[in-house]
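Sequence in, structure out.
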Amino acid sequence: MQEDGKYLYGIVGAVDGLDFGKIGIAEEEVYAIRYGDIAAVVSDHPLCKIQPLRQNLKPHHEVIKEVNKGYTIIPMTFGHIAKDADDIVELLKNNFSIIFQELKRLENKVEMGLKIFWDVENVFEYFLRKDRELADYRDRIFGKASKPTDEEKLELGMLFAQKVNEERQQHSNRVLKALDHCIADVRINKPTDEKMMLNAAFLIERDKEKEYEEGVYRVANLFDGHFTFDYNGSWAPYNFIELRLKA
């Protein structure tokens, strides 16, 4: 029979009687192992390599989401399994000071996501219509008798990228200025799509969620119909963890 270990979802400030029921991986009971003023959120799991399959990833994130509703949690990345409760306690003991400080820094704060997209069929054509310099250069190299050289096409691509980045920066500044009153911190992440104008994560106080939501609506009114907004949350503060644990 395979020995059970402890699957680790995250770390919270110590609470007594933390029990979220059978919502863990393989529908195992989720509970806390405490050391002093901090505690690890765990469930039992066989001591084996766990595969990043949907049936495992989903409960991992669902547990963190559920705990985050009522507690400040430092979420762990997927796949951490300790040998037993003693190993969990040793982890908490060896990292107690930095964990405690991190929980204090993030206390009563949650993460909100905001993505803004250019809502156009073709971003390049959109910029050609609105930017005279880009359009003139395109017309100049494609309007001559000979085909554009590779160097000219590269120059066109670089000019386009410059225009996109300039507009991203300009609009990002507008958004940050409009939301500055209700956010504690911000992370601007790399766009994952050519049409993505902004990919941001905001750290806010729990009691400012409504204020943040109202702020997003006000910001959206600053943009015309060529943009769409996708905001989501609240989440555990994944983008704001500044913690490296000693194993």
